Each structure stands twice: as C-alpha cells, then as structure tokens.
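Hi everyone,

Forwarding the result from last night's run.
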Amino acid sequence: MSGLVSIITPSYNSAKYIAETIQSVQNQSYDNWEMIIIDDCSSDNSEEVIIEIQKTDSRIHFFKLNQNSGSGVARNIGIEKAAGDFMTFIDSDDIWFTDFIKNSVETIQNTKTSFVFSSYKRSNEVLEFVYSDFIVPQRVTYTDILKSNSISCLTAFLDIKTLGKKYMPKIRKRQDMGLWLQYLKEIPFAYGIKEPQAIYRIRENSLSRNKKNLLKFQWEFYREVENLSILSSTYYMLHWMYRGFMKYRN
C-alpha cells in the first residue's frame, strides 16, 4: 500500500475543536499523508493552535486567507495545493477513526473503483452519540446524489491520480455535492463503506440541521449549477426534502 494522501481542511474560528481533528489525522495507521489547512480569516486563536501543532509535524501545511471567503473557496485552494495521489477532506470539528485512510485506500485497490465514501457516527458537540449512525448505500450514482447527498465531506476519498483534480462550484452552499456530481458524470458510481469510519460532530448552530434555510440553495443548485429543468428540479427537490427529513430523525 502506498501513495500520498492529501487531506484538505478549511478552518474558521475552530480553536475549540481543531486540535482533536488534527490528532485524529496524526493517529492514522496510514502515515503517508499531507494535511493542508486553510484558515478562512478566523477571529479567534485558531491560527496559534494550528501553528503550534504544525511545529511538531512537517506533514501539516498551513495557509491563511486574506479575507473571509467561505469553506468552498478554502477547499478549492486546498485542492489546488494538493500533491497527493489521493484526496480527501475533513472539517475542523470532525474526527476520523484510526483506520479511515487505510480502509479507504484498500477499498479503492480491492474494488478497482476511484471514488469511495464511508458511513459515520453522529455526535453532539461533546462527542456523545445521541444520534443514530449514518449508514451509506453500497454504491451511489449521479442521479442518486441528486436525490440525496449521502457522500459527506468527512469521508469522501478520491483517487485523483486516476480521476484528476476538479474544483467545487463557486456557490454559497452545496459545494461538496457539486464536486461529487462532477466526478459522477464521468464514472458509473462511488463505492460506499458500510462500517462507520468517522465521527461527524453536529453543532447546535449547524446550517445542515436547518433544512428550511437550505431549500433556496438546493433549488438554485438544481437550476443554476446542474441546469436541470423545472420539472426535473421539482422531482429531485421532493426526494431531497423527504430524505433530508429522514436523515436527521434520531
């Protein structure tokens, strides 16, 4: 097993959690990785926390934006700087289990696929598992993701040596979904690992928990990013609303 893994982490006012996130990367059983952290003009002491850890680990690379630009812009800068054979993402408050990278690379090799993703556990802010695990399908296609984005940034894992680099669309929300769909237009499916490989921390002010606020963004995504007709957009929107409701039921 070989190949450099580029890990992309946008950070904004993450001082409370970022050390735990970095630790979960450093604890990986697969150690050939680089972690690219892009600070989106934080106003807390995130930068100091990250730089202190960086001093002890040359695999961590830190960059700071001059103005607050959003997580999509930060991730795209990380994609641009990524030098690995594989590319994956982890946000600044989430956690990987020890074998996440190892299992992702092995799954790509064993299944001869180029895009894998995993199930994950869902916790509250203090890592209590008060929500059920999110178990992913074994495979998803382009149309599956239009109905419900079961690929989280937390576990998406791409063989960019095979697929090449693509970038997130320049939109306020749903940038990750836009990236997955770009790849799924070119490959038959992404392969899902059923066993949870990570912890997604659900914070009280998380926008993903407020589906009403996302309705407008989701509709604009179908119409303006994917250029779907009104009829098709309505069809996928109804699926997305139902599955989104089911996803966040305890």
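The first strand starts at residue 5 and ends at 11.

Cheers,
N.
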